[in-house]
Amino acid sequence: MAKGTRYTDEYKREIVRLVTELGKEPADVAEDIGVTTRTVQNWVKAIETHGDDAFPGKGNRHAVDDEIWKQRKRIKELEEENAILKKAMSIFAKDGK
Q: Residue 14 needs a FRET pair 20 to 30 A away by CA distance; which of 30, 57, 61, 97 works?
């Protein structure tokens, strides 16, 4: 297949099944479908790691990764709010003297 070809979830899962359930070698499967061995290994690892959420689609995150991203964003927001409050406190402390 041509470089940049997008593969469906179902297709990737079938390729993984060839390796995990039928015992085919990743290199042989990769050669048959025209991708690198590493690609097949990555698909297998994705299924092992994320199960049903293995292939969220381009531009989407796994549920766990999305939660981590949201938490990091919230931490950054809280740090910015904290910095603003510290500045305000120092301004009021100076005015009170």
A: 61
Q: Which of 50, 56, 19, 21 is nearest to 37 (CA)?
A: 19
- Tokens 């099944």 belong to 17
Q: What is the pLDDT of residues 1-60, one digit of tens each?
A: 556 678 888 899 999 999 999 999 999 999 999 999 999 999 999 888 877 777 766 666
Q: Distance between CA 10 and CA 68 in Å, rounded? A: 27
- How many other C-beta atoms can be found within 10 angstroms of the C-beta atom of residue 94? 8
- Return the CA Rg of the chain: 24
CATH architecture of the domain with residue range 1-59: Orthogonal Bundle (1.10)
The span from the CA of 26 to the CA of 47, in Å, is 14
Per-residue pLDDT, averaged over 81-96, amounts to 87
Domain boundaries, the chain: 1-59, 61-97
31: how many CB neighbours lie within 10 A of its CB? 13
